[in-house]
Amino acid sequence: MLSVWAADGSPVRVPELKVRALLADLLVHEGRPVSADRLADDLWGEDLPGNPANTLQTKISQLRRVVGRDLVRYEPAGYVLHAPDVDAVRFARLLARARDEGDLAARAGLLSDALSLWRGPAYADFADAEFIRPAAARLDEQRLTALEEHAEVRLALGEHTRLADELSELVDGHPLRERLRAVHLRALYRSGRQTEALAGYGALRERLADELGVDPGPELVSLHQAILRQDPALAPVPAPATSAARPRGNLPAPLTGLVGRDDALAEVGTLLEGGRLVTLTGPGGVGKTRLALAVARGREDAWLVELAGVGSAGSVGSAGLAGSASSVGSVGSVDSAGREVPGAGSAGFAGGGAAGLVGVAEVVAEAVGVRDEVAARAGMPGAGLPQRLADALRGRELLLILDNCEHLIEPVAELAGLLLRTAPGLTILATSQEPLAIPGESVYTVAPLAAPYALSLFAARAGVGLDAAATPYAEAICRRLDGLPLALELAAARVRALGVRGVAEHLDDRFRLLGGTMRGLPARQRTLRAVIDWSWEQLTPAQQRALAALAVHPGGCTPEAAGVAVELVDQLVNRSMVVAEPPRYRLLESIAAYCLERLAPDDPLFARRDAYYADLAERARPQLYGHAQREWLARLDDEMLNLRAVDTGDRLAWYLYLRGRHTEAHRLTAGTAWEPGFAMLLGLPYQEVRGDDRQRWFTAHAYLGLGDVGRAEPLLTGVLAGFRASGDRWGEAAALMGRAKQAIFQGDLALAERSGTESLEIFTDLGDQWGRMQANDQLGYLAEITGDYARAGALHREGLRIAEDLRLWTDASYRLSSLGRIALLAGDLGRSREFHERGMRLAVEQSNRFAEEFARVGLGLAARRAGDLDEAERLFLASLEWNRRLAADYGVPFYGVTLILAELGFVAELRGRAVPARELHEEGLRAARELGDPRSVALAQEGLAGVAVLDGLPEEALRLLAEAAELRESVGAPQPAAERGDVERIRAAARKALGKTDP
């Protein structure tokens, strides 16, 4: 059952089924963001409510009221539950700790603690929900595995009598789980109930045959035979007295703790329970060996076989690849199908073929103590050693860890297959940069550490605390070293000499920085270069050249973009040198840096890349206007790191504007006609540069963003005529959208309605979603002015949907704040604050000060309506300072200044401070007249009416209110009822002073 507790342990009631389902949905995603669309689909399926977005937001608000606002956060990718303490997480941690614990009693206690967290099946109250089933099934499987492990530990501790009875019900519920059945049979036998044990085996065999058509596994067959012959080995054995009892294996004791691998420990442990061959793959330095040893720790018969030193790593690949730029061979050494041309590869392991197999078998035999087989090699054919080793292991139960197999992959795979076929009690855990690729293998890819764990490992190994100043540099180190544990440990070793910041600043020369050897490690792991050298030398020249071709693309790429055969890319993925994110592929930063270091500056790979992306930028430019906009925005998003590496001129200006990357666009367009617009968007000085009509429109668009109608109007008039003459319908729609905004500033609401509607029609016909959103925006503001809040809200919600769909987060910020304004006018102050806060967060994330100020003013409006004058004043003063600075820099009053001055004037008036209130409203009146905005003039007059009441001039107050009302009527924008609060308050005070009362 889904249950919630407060910090003090008291239960928290989560009302309403859909809110509980929402909580469950966020929980099963384990801290990953979930989009609003996905949540709505999970909660309602095809039976969506009339307004899914609003209904979902209501459920989110209800959940936040229960669990706390900070725990349910909205991020650009969706909603995230930041739950500090979840039973499923605690269970996994306890399970991992138990598997790492050598003392049986302590392990039993940890497993008992883990199992005590269960109160029934996972998410039982949502068992029929499709989105719950995978997570619930995974958790239930983990619980059963933990129950089996707990039973085995208790059996080893001598609790067979109790287990014989306790496990009966569990076995009946899960009759086909062979591991569970095995521990039950052992418990029955040790309790003197041999007949029941034999009957239990018979029942399982019949059920497997009937339902699955298979026989029991080798372990159960061996157990059945041992029971039949009453093998003494089945008798109870005393548990080790302490955790200091020495295991029979040869695992080295760990020197440091394993960080960030709890989930991996549990998952690999589960794979080993379900199969007899598990291979851990991943790039060099990712921690495959450490994970394998941690998984095996505590097992009674685990043996480590170190293969890194077997054979000559240098014999693989070309001997002439000593690090010069010319050492990277030619992609042409593969045929059209990606197969290597004969002679282009290497001879393989120096002891390849039968000799290689015998050599590996000899090392394994030595490691596990089968020395008689090694000694016998002198008097028998060498080829017989692998089989003699397999025969010697036939009756043993052991875990064999074959470490670092990549340079011996063929002989290791052959030997592993032979041993597994011959010795049923053998399990193999291999570590390799590529799979063994034999039947029965389960492959587990060891990923680099996630950011928080990488940071923890770096700090722990560096032996330093990370304060606010050092943390950003440490995070950069972890990110640039790809979360590879070995690289992080090498970097941490340099902190003492350079400090955290110094290490971060030297990462551009990472191979020199991380080149100081660390004692106590194999030679191949003492430097970052040595780690990658080891992997590089396993590649053929064709694979090396393909890797270099991928490395020149810093953002990853498709095989087509790199000019590399797909088959070669697949080989590199299998060797853990390339990260597959189909259809794209990328290199870890350190591997890419290694490859780039080997390339000459004039290598043709660079020229090919530059030409490819320059052409892509040129092809993308027209596609960003119209139906293909979404597709090409996403495509350029994928390629942005690559595009930054080449000179694309100003081809990306519009893309960067849509993505809100104004600083980058300003730098990119320096000296072009795009530059003035981006300068204004950043609040920077500029000089106009005459360009084509679209570039001139963009300058006018930027002027309107500043509220500078005087400079925008002639530009818009000129480009509108030019667009119509040339038949540029997108330009015509853009100019009409600008004219609608201009008309709103000037109070010409009829012109704004005509222009905005015509713009929307053209953009819709063209399929340009950005344009539709902008036209919707102007029509939404117009509806807000006229008091049609339902229409305004619908238009802004449509704009928000488009912005989120196109991932235009700056535009999404504006739309959220606009919805906040509508909620404010509708009297829902809580909803208004929520919308404005979301808009503020997005604006800050995008570093867009204009959007941030728009949200800040909205929060100020909500604060004043709520009666919090201090908070309102604080917010408005911060915005006023910024607006005044911009007004001084650009020599024009800003539209936003008039509203802010009016609001501050009302705050002063409500406090009874006539002098500052008058000064603020008079300044606002001057700015409004300079702007030529009748509605702003009216607002200032209404403010001055409040000051007149304070001054004891009620007749003057009523006159000013009448003039303001007449002025609003003259432009077709009478004040809607929701906005008359100040006017009605001031009118009532004036009439009361005159001894009049309203009817």
Automatic annotation (TrEMBL):
CDD domains: BTAD
Family: Belongs to the AfsR/DnrI/RedD regulatory family.
Lineage: Bacteria, Bacillati, Actinomycetota, Actinomycetes, Streptosporangiales
Segments forming domain OmpR/PhoB-type: 1-83
Name this protein carries in UniProt: BTAD domain-containing putative transcriptional regulator
Origin species: Nonomuraea typhae
UniProt keyword DNA-binding, yes or no: yes
DNA-binding stretch(es), residue numbering of this chain: 1-83
Pfam families the UniProt entry points to: BTAD, Trans_reg_C
Keyword tags: DNA-binding
SUPFAM superfamilies: C-terminal effector domain of the bipartite response regulators (SSF46894), P-loop containing nucleoside triphosphate hydrolases (SSF52540), TPR-like (SSF48452)
Keyword DNA-binding: yes
